[in-house]
Amino acid sequence: xxxxxxxxxxxxxxxxxxxxxxxxxxxxxxxxxxxxxxxxxxxxxxxxxxxxxxxxxxxxxxxxxxxxxxxxxxxxxxxxxxxxxxxxxxxxxxxxxxxxxxxxxxxxxxxxxxxxxxxxxxxxxxxxxxxxxxxxxxxxx
Length: 141
Ligand SMILES: [Cu+2]
Description:
Blueprint: H1 2-26, E1 33-35, E2 44-51, E3 54-56, E4 59-63, E5 68-74, E6 82-87, E7 92-97, E8 102-106, E9 112-117, E10 134-140
Parallel strand pairs: 1-4, 2-5, 4-10
Antiparallel strand pairs: 2-3, 5-8, 6-7, 6-9, 9-10
The protein binds copper (II) ion.
Copper (II) ion binds at residues 53, 81, 118, 120, 128, 133.
């Protein structure tokens, strides 16, 4: 009986945690969402900055089948960073060294949620990705 109560309490506690995490995510507590619009040339322009150890914005929403011009650059600092997208099935595969602003052009071919990240890692330390340098590109129909 007692153990059942303990299990129920634990379940309630977990549900609370998950609810809290969902709210924190929706409020963008650790990042920002950018919803791309299609400009006069029919291109979705997106700018992303990478730094120690984040991408801003870290949640990008684009439309499928419309060209994207993604301009990536690095926040000042000595730590090298990259922007890696590895979703060849959706027409998106590139690995860019961040520095001066650089444009990457692609057309997302398939709706879905795709992760991007920095693939740098210093020796045996945590990778930049593990330190939070990652984000999601959401491709809508
Ligand atoms: Cu990095």
